[in-house]
Automatic annotation (TrEMBL):
<dbReference type="InterPro" id="IPR017927">
    <property type="entry name" value="FAD-bd_FR_type"/>
</dbReference>
<dbReference type="InterPro" id="IPR039261">
    <property type="entry name" value="FNR_nucleotide-bd"/>
</dbReference>
<dbReference type="InterPro" id="IPR017938">
    <property type="entry name" value="Riboflavin_synthase-like_b-brl"/>
</dbReference>
<feature type="domain" description="FAD-binding FR-type">
    <location>
        <begin position="1"/>
        <end position="107"/>
    </location>
</feature>
<dbReference type="GO" id="GO:0016491">
    <property type="term" value="F:oxidoreductase activity"/>
</dbReference>
<protein>
    <submittedName>
        <fullName>Ferredoxin--NADP+ reductase</fullName>
    </submittedName>
</protein>
Length: 238
């Protein structure tokens, strides 16, 4: 396993609780849309075993042509050791990155794509939307639906409806409105549904989608292949 040490080159305050850390790209380092990465802080590998409290699995919120690896995360007042250290880091500080992989690349199957996310989960979908804007081949339409109770919605300059590009975006701040809209979207029985958020959020969405007749193979999760059956075998209990 190759570990890259790289520097923070910019910190963007997206909302009062959400920051994007832009990291220098190591030479010859690349990734695809929907990728995640392991982000580690100084000291994580100082002992006999890795200190897992200093390592987090993070989505990459940028594309390679943006020339920075973007990590977008929510840091609340009460937070973990990892987030507390990250909050106090500055431009020029070093972090380690390794194990890059994409579970949710944009499928180009001449279908409508629905991006369902909660809060900062939208960061996973930012590169998919940018990739679609750059090349819309074999994608009929993309619709993004995000729920964020804070009402501090992310990336509103990108996630805004562009009818000419067959892209629509919707933000809601409550569960009732969100799940009513998921049911409406699921009337498209041939659509592809990407879901990003907490495990609880994934389970709730899968239950609603399955209840509406959406098949497991139409549901894309940002999870490793070996754990997908645990989620996608869920039957509706609603």
């Amino acid at each position: 396993m190759q570990i890259y040490w790289t520097k923070i080159n910019k910190i963007i305050e997206e909302t009062p609780e959400v920051k994007t850390y832009l990291l220098d790209c190591p030479e010859d380092y690349t990734w695809e849309e929907g990728s995640h990465i392991h982000l580690a802080l100084e000291g994580f590998n100082a002992g006999d075993k890795p200190n897992r409290s200093l390592i987090r699995h993070m989505s990459i919120s940028t594309l390679p042509h943006e020339n920075s690896i973007g990590i977008t995360t929510r840091i609340r007042e009460q937070c973990s050791e990892f987030k507390s250290i990250l909050r106090n880091m500055e431009i020029g500080h070093e972090v380690a990155i390794f194990k890059t992989h994409s579970n949710v690349p944009l499928k180009r199957e001449d279908k409508n794509v629905y991006l369902l996310s909660s809060g900062v989960g939208l960061a996973t979908f930012r590169p998919l939307v940018l990739d679609y804007f750059d090349r819309a081949d074999n994608v009929n339409h993309i619709h993004s639906l995000n729920i964020d109770s804070s009402k501090d919605f992310l990336f509103t300059n990108i996630f805004e409806s562009v009818p000419d590009k067959k892209f629509t975006s919707q933000f809601v701040d409550n569960r009732k409105e969100y799940y009513n809209e998921v049911k409406n979207l699921a009337t498209d029985k041939a659509g592809l549904f990407y879901v990003v958020g907490s495990d609880e959020f994934l389970v709730e969405n899968i239950e609603v989608l399955r209840e509406q007749g959406i098949k497991p193979e139409q549901i894309m999760l940002d999870k490793h292949e070996h754990v997908l059956p645990e989620f996608l075998s869920i039957q509706s209990s609603i």
